[in-house]
Amino acid sequence: MSIKENILQFRQEIPEHVTLVAVSKTKPNADLMEAYEAGQRIFGENKIQEMTEKWEQLPKDIEWHMIGHVQTNKVKYMAPFVSLVHAVDRIKLLKEINKQAKKENRVIDVLIQIKIAREDSKFGMPVEEANQLFEQGKLSAYPNVNVKGLMGMATFTDDTDQVAAEFELLEGIFLRFRESANLSILSTGMSGDYKIAIENGSTMIRVGSAIFGARN
Ligand SMILES: *Cc1c(COP(=O)(O)O)cnc(C)c1O
């Protein structure tokens, strides 16, 4: 199927309350434009330089999501335009996004990435640390950052019970703090596990290869 058909099929398949992020990392602008012409406006990238180049070259009504691990010293390059940063996994990064957002005179939306995978996962804030962050109201120290929700990646495994358990754990944290911390986004699920993610409360899926084909 073509990129365009894949986008249209996803739009039919996923519930209305779930947002589709088209993960376009490594793909050429022509591929993104094919998705754009099918109506897709939210794209996810995992490298700041690549995302910035695409932002400069492509239509300005695209919303750019940074879904990958972010190095603190590179935040300044995306601060003028990024629409959502998915993988904030440490206070130091929150602090830097706040600083650069202030310089740009804007408030940047972010998600806190929580470590839910038992294996495979280098990144993500430990659950206990995230609990403290939300319980103790520490977020008010960062007025130019708006924490809109949580993000997580499950272990890369064929064991669907394990994947479901990991997503369920994150959904529990999301529901616990949803009202007090005003959270609305739960970013879980990729090409291989988005169905399990949606069954476990996902409101935003990040899909790459199932739309654009395999990456090299
Ligand atoms: C690459 C990537 C995805 C998309 O992966 P696919 O398996 O191609 O759908 C989702 N989330 C993150 C954080 C990624 O780096």
Automatic annotation (TrEMBL):
Entry-linked CDD domains: PLPDE_III_YBL036c_like
Classification via Gene3D superfamilies: Alanine racemase
Cofactor(s) annotated in UniProt: pyridoxal 5'-phosphate
Entry keyword set: Pyridoxal phosphate
Function comment: Pyridoxal 5'-phosphate (PLP)-binding protein, which is involved in PLP homeostasis.
Record-annotated membrane-spanning stretches: none
SUPFAM superfamilies: PLP-binding barrel (SSF51419)
Cited Pfam families: Ala_racemase_N
InterPro entries, sorted: Ala_racemase_N, PLP-binding_barrel, PyrdxlP_homeostasis
Alphabetical list of NCBIfam families matching this protein: YggS family pyridoxal phosphate-dependent enzyme
Keyword Electron transport: no
Family: Belongs to the pyridoxal phosphate-binding protein YggS/PROSC family.
Alanine racemase N-terminal domain residues: 2-215
HAMAP family: PLP_homeostasis
Modified residues (N6-(pyridoxal phosphate)lysine): 25
Identification of the protein by name: Pyridoxal phosphate homeostasis protein
One GO MF term: pyridoxal phosphate binding
